[in-house]
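Subject: for your reference before the review

Hello V.,

The reviewers asked for a structural picture of the protein, and I figured it would be easier to keep everything in one thread rather than splitting it across files. Below is the amino acid sequence we used in the manuscript, unchanged from the supplementary table.
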Amino acid sequence: RSKAMRLLLLSLPVTGTLRLLEAFFGFTPQEASSSLQNYMVYFTTLVDVEFDSKTQKPIYATSQDLMLLSKQCFLSSLKLVVALCIFAPMSYTPFETGVLAHSTNHTFADIWSWMHILNNFVAATILSFSLEFGSNNINLLIEITTGIKTKQMVNNPMFASTSVSDFWGSRWNNLIHVALKRGVYKPVRKYCNKRSIAAAATFLASGILHEYCWGLLFYVHDNEKDYESGFCSNCVYPHYGKNVIFFGWNGVLIVFEYLLSQFYFVRKIRTKLPNIIITAMVLITALPIGHLFTGDWVAAGYYEQIQMA
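And here is what came back from the structure prediction:
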């Protein structure tokens, strides 16, 4: 019944499926394809491992690498614990909006309410911290047991992103980003040669992938249902389609960002504004509808389960 455990168990088949797609279309990294050993390492690890571009062999973690990763594990756990302690008494929705976060009843005024936006920010930040904490510890476990250096999966997306593409492409769940890039983006661009279409297709695929994950994460077993009504009053029944809308919108944002970046004055403005303002501008493009992605996590008690763990 643990959503955190279900999420962990989903990671391997999801990444495995995307890696099979990249292999089918011929976009497996050259280093991974250079030997049978590298191929097996690449396809059997839950995270991305680092290869030496010259020797075509896996890079092995040094004692300094392990110390640095251990420090990252400590800091990510500290951030997560502090955030949970602060917002747990508020049920992770510090501001009363009058509309349930996981519902689909939000009006235009509701989604632009500053209280709604801040609630979404809190939910997304804690989710980011939990992904960072989990991925760092998995990376550390793999580096200790195999000796192979791994790649960072989450890199402070909520406080350091400089663009929408930077948020999704370099900071939020890099494992899935890279897998989608090789398994969806590159094959689509190969056949249509349109960057915008490939980007839109990738975000659409991401939305569909998350809908599938939602079906398993929030699956209600018969044992949880009331015998007479056949309904679970304490369970969350998500409205499917929300993830497609959320990730589809972010795909549109990526296309707009690419088009706007062609203008000199836009590039100039980005160099003049403080980083914190740029990050805030990036987040505000998605936070009004962020509940489509984070609302079910809050309603289903995902953060409470992390807290108890």
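For the response letter, the relevant points are probably these. The radius of gyration is 20 Å. Residues 111 and 289 are 7 Å apart (CA to CA).

Happy to draft the paragraph if you're swamped.

O.
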